[in-house]
Write a structure and sequence with these properties.
Elements (H helix, E strand, L loop, with lengths): L9 H23 L5 H12 L3 E2 H8 L3 H13 L3 E6 L2 E9 L3 H19 L5 H31 L4
């Protein structure tokens, strides 16, 4: 059997680039001396993206199990970077919010991300960088729209 996958397909390229950029980010976080693991840094970034999210929502956005994210959040809370606050809509749930001291750590993380992006976009002029950014924003939006109906369909499906 001589089945071959097209490694230049958009899906393969995006997946491969995501893997490579994540590995580069993890290396930079490791050597930056931030006192965080890459997983903790990614979790802190997700909290910052939507401050006040529930742990379950953060885990879903990260594609991780809630217990894994809980361990990251425990460490971030112990370092004083996040706080868990009661969710006024669900007394069993907690909202995850940034503490005041998180800002400095997020700035350090952002510097590392900028360096990864700078390395990844070597040889790109400013216009190409803007085009890539804009195209990826549309790409993400299209995928999010396509994902929503399947989630709604699962929720509406009768339980057997």
């Amino acid at each position: 059997m001589s089945s071959r996958i097209n490694t230049d397909s958009l899906a393969f390229l995006v997946t491969d680039c995501a893997r490579l950029i994540r590995a580069a980010f993890e290396r930079r976080i490791l050597v930056a001396g931030l006192g965080l693991t890459a997983g903790e840094a990614r979790t802190l970034m997700q909290v910052a993206a939507i401050n006040g999210s529930r742990q379950l929502d953060i885990a879903s956005r990260m594609g991780l199990e809630p217990m894994t994210v809980s361990a990251f959040l425990d460490k971030l809370q112990a370092r004083g970077l996040i706080e868990r606050q009661p969710d006024p809509l669900d007394r069993r749930a907690k909202r995850i919010v940034l503490s005041e001291s998180a800002d400095a750590k997020l700035k350090q993380i952002d510097r590392e991300i900028c360096e990864v992006e700078r390395n990844a976009t070597q040889g790109f002029d400013k216009d190409l960088q803007v085009q890539l950014h804009d195209a990826l924003c549309v790409f993400r939006s299209n995928l999010q729209k396509a994902e929503a109906p399947a989630e709604v369909e699962r929720e509406l499906r009768p339980v057997d």
